[in-house]
User: Fold these one by one.
Assistant:
Number 1:
Amino acid sequence: MNLLVGATGFVGGHVVEYLFQQGEISKGVFRKGSHLKIMDTSGVMGIEADLLDHHTLHEAMEGVDIVYNLASPMPGDNEDFMKVNTEGLLNLLEVATEAKAKAFVHLSTLEVFGFHSRTVGGSTSDPSNEYQRGKAEAERLLEEFSKRSAEPRITVVRAAKAVGSRDESFVLPILAMAERGRVTLPGGSRMSFTHPKDIALAMYRAALGKTPTGSRFNIKSFDATPEQLASEILAASGKHAEVRRQGFLSGSSLPKYTAEQLRAAQLLEDETGWKDLGYAPAYTLQSTCEEIGKWYLKSPWITESV
């Protein structure tokens, strides 16, 4: 039995679908007010729980062998942002240990390396803002826990910026801007992206694999410039619009943090751990954009909420 924490989020929803396609039985933790359609359509048992409440976590953890932790609030979206990444994570680890769970797979981000260096990889972490510091602190706590206890076996998967269907940070703003005739992007160069189904694949392989506890893996699906990705998304979605870089008098509708990600243009070149993980990306730039196009053409009104 799997337990997915953060199952209703963008990446979490794709992990839910992936595990369902593998024939896995899962429970999904959600917060009050979350949208549960993905879990309902994937046969996932939804359990309302709070990472800061031991009692609700004990109930959620019953019968669980593998924990997938995708809880990743952004500062400002959740007043308990840092507590979720620290106290909440430790609560989840403690309850998983008490329940004798075998594996604990944590989703992190390449951004723990910070935005100071364009090429990322290796082991040097230099977070430059609150979100990155929260994710880096979570990794530190996981490392300490793995030194104290052999079970559950802990694996950290760090992914490049996720992009795919249902993405509200890059894809929907791009489509919404296209409807106004012009897509404006902040300056940025070639960078790494990850399709959320590739994240699901990596996390699944990490859960079933035999890598040492405390292992960390950096993953991506493909490299592209933001303009190239935006143009391919528009083509696959049947949209026609000018794609250009942001100037002094022209602004972008992308969320602030997404704009920072694009300017930083993190490029992952270290793929040395992929063989140990049993990972190879299934998605390319083309197949990612084709998937986005199919999703958008089924629900073209989706941009009305942007």
Number 2:
Amino acid sequence: MPPLESTPSTGSAEPEERAQTAEQLARDLLERCTFPGPGHPLDCAVSGGPDSSALLILATRAGCDVTAHHVDHGLRPGSEREADLVAALADRLGARFVSHRARVEPGANLEARARDARWALLPSGCATGHTLDDRAETMLINLMRGAGRLGLSPLRDPCRHPIVGLRRANTHALCSAFDVAVVWDQTNDDPAFVRNRVRNELLPLLNDISNRDLAPVLDRQADLLADEDDYLDDLAAAIDPTDARALRAAPVVLARRALRNFITDAWSLGHPPSVATTERALDVALGHAASCDLEGGHRIHRTAQKLRLLSSLATVTHS
């Protein structure tokens, strides 16, 4: 089992005083969170690390009807004991506990495959312990991958990410105040994973170069891009993405967005189309080609100025 982080001693303070301090910290942090109201059912993904443990603490202190879900990927010796740790914390906080076991074999793309296996088991809309620091890291990772505005404004759903306004220092402090032992995942230091290098190398370097803490700056930028993304989506929604004439008449930025949204809503893949896919589809709308192949076995075809998205399972039109 990964080692447990020891919570630092709070000195000579009496237990009652320490408990009051912990509860006050939780109340202060809740002002920066987006939990639903008291009594609202809330599923929380809890790995046993400090961020997800803080999520569980704060969800119960917000008065939600909480169920903690733990997924054991079976990738580390003794990993099943992590579920016991989460179960004990859930019991202490008055939350229900559900254990899941995913089957993930070691190999290439381990991080992505483990994530996909985890989400396949967790309830839809399950809240996660992503923090502001995670948001900044994800933004940089998506930037390196060539993402557009959508990828540069990640972790936007306030129900799915209720503690994204907090820093990691906050979640660690909360676990310490509540005297919660948390799991330390040693893979968080493995430079084989891109996120770890962004967290441990890139962001510290950027902070040093800019002489400031960039995570809040990136967070604000993500909010601005999210607002602009929503505005452009509203404009693009007025365009029929299957009408080639309407697409040709629209500004290219809106035509591209209307097509991308249409493809995303209609196909079976779990991610938006790539830039190259969207551009190929736009070429069909503009009359440069009659049809083209897309990702995942899909194909877009133009007949009598109408676009159809074809797959091995169905033909998709716009309603």
Number 3:
Amino acid sequence: MIDINSKSWLSIPVDSDFPIQNIPFGIIRTKGNAPRPATIIGDTVIDLSAMADFGFFDNLGIEDLTPFYKPFLNDFIALGKKHTNAVRERVAEVFSAGNDELKEYPEAREMILIPVNDAEMLMPVQVGDYTDFYSSREHATNVGMMFRDPDNALLPNWLHIPVGYHGRSSSIVVSGTHVHRPNGQTKPDNAPLPVFGPSRQLDFELEMAFITGKSTELGNNVPVDRAEDYIFGMVLFNDLSARDIQKWEYVPLGPFLSKSFASVISPWIVTLEALEYFRTKGPVQEPQVLPYLQSDGEKTFDINLEVLIQPEGSVPNSFCRSNFKYLYWNMSQQLAHQTVNGCNINVGDMYASGTISGADPGSYGSLLELTWKGTKPVHLPDGSVRTFLLDGDSVIMKGFCEKDGLRIGFGESACTLLPAKKIV
């Protein structure tokens, strides 16, 4: 862990998500150059391939430096935490206040340091497989009350297993991507037959996702007490959902077209090591879970989350504030359950948390809950009303930890919604 009192000689704005203690990893592209790994301190992007060019990583025990030049972070992550943590610490050392190593390489400074507005952020990893969990008790209860039975909202299995499903990895996109409203079948309540057309109940889902940094062989499992050894880091995750399509299609096999049109992640992967100072305990689990899921200690993180909606031509409006620590099932339990049947995992796989809702209505992590299935519209200061998302809306998700004056953040997951495309 990088010292919480460390300072950088780089300028860092007040309330920046990226102090020297963070050092997240992402993939950038600049004019005339190929995609490559980078990190960020304050508003300055740091080109890791350029640092490798000038020998800054020569003494870290990394024999093959080619991962510093790849268009995805998968090979870099596969170096293992010993080496990726060494890179984080080396970057922090070079840019710590009082360090003048870059003065020996005046030609390097221009190549290594990039203004944030000059760097295009790309997908940080090539996602092979993607699982979406359903780990918020409050969210699952709200949905159960709306669509099933208010007195028995949770299904019988929910308190015993981290419920999840395998999603579509190809449509996970990076922040800044424009997303078209999906087309599909829906079944109006009073209609005898389904109809086809654009979704009229497009929703966001406030989630986070973790990325695995180690692979396993088919037939092996990851024990719950070793799961964090396999987790590289985390991103914000907007699991966009077409609620009307979902309602018609989800029985009996669950979400399909209603979820696979786009999910939007933040571009910087924040490592577990950067979050170490913000560990906390999750909710008490009753009844007691089976032994392979029993997880003691501070196995989650105090991450403040917010969703804003910006209507076209207007300003952002805060819709909800939640926290990652509200999740009933933690990441270690999710990964242990994912692999307990022998399912093999790979470097770069992504595992979303499911919608993160709290007990207070202001902490509900979806419009489905915030407007209670559209029956309680939200009135915005510009005079517009929302039950679900409109074309032209931008959805902005933010997340950060803060304690004792130290703030570690994730940046943004942002997307703008476009009209549905015509079917050919």
Number 4:
Amino acid sequence: MSVDPVNHPLRRPVVLEAITRAASGHAGRPWAAQGFTDLDDRASHPCGVLHGRPFPVFAKLDSAPDAAAKFTAEIRGLDLVERLAGIATPTPVGPGVVPVEDGWLLLFEALPERHAEDRTRDDWRSIGHTLARLHTVHSTQFGLDGQDGFFGPFRQDNTPVPANRWADFYAERRVRPLLRSAVGSGYLPADLAGAVERLVPRLAELSGAEPRPSLVHGDAQQNNFVSTPAGAVVVDVAPYFGHPEIDLALVDHFAPVSPDVFDAYREIRPIDPDFPARRELWRLFAYLAAVTVDGTSPFGRRYLGRLSAAVAHYTSVLGSQR
């Protein structure tokens, strides 16, 4: 992390002017940035905190053609999980989504954050409690009719499927779309793509008991929970009603988490003893996303290996059931 980089995109005069205008309107009095902390190393877009009073502003800049749609979906998703589950979310600055000449800004009041490497036992427990509280909100359908989202740069179709069965929703709305993206990227070997395609129709045989549709974060990797003195605050949500295990599988997808996360979760909701056997199943779509975006980098190749191992494992499990 670097402080006060002079040439950061968020420090450009036209961008800084838009942030200042939004923050001043939000505060009801003039607001001015008095310092800047670069957070680019923690995001896929230019982002950082502009320090000012009475609040600092977290800002993210995206110049992609669908930037407004992505940021609007994030604001709507945060509103949904706060309203339905009563969990903490960041406060948008003004409308939250602000246009600039070559892109869009996402603006929140910055949080007093404790970084992942400095988390306390209470911080980890708060993440577990927050996830469990999300999962106590239910629906009669998998998906989220009328409100799609984004998983990273990928549009996430939340339209319910006719059968209203979790394995079908997961196959049609998560795995197959990202399989097409991975194939189209050219980074997914043809034999592995074929193995995934053959696995998809048999997901129901691996999925365990049919779950009740629960509100899920949708991108619940640990960095999408901000640890504050008041507890965990969720960010970068991609919510819909799905299988709670998909969040539990993603929370330690990129890096290990303390066992306190799962222990605290169990204080509110049980975790099926067979969940560890399904963990990699619920990561297939995320592996395909990583391969699509970063297939030639060391990061992407790592997840290509994990995808291959997971597909081989579940193919073997199905073979042993014959």
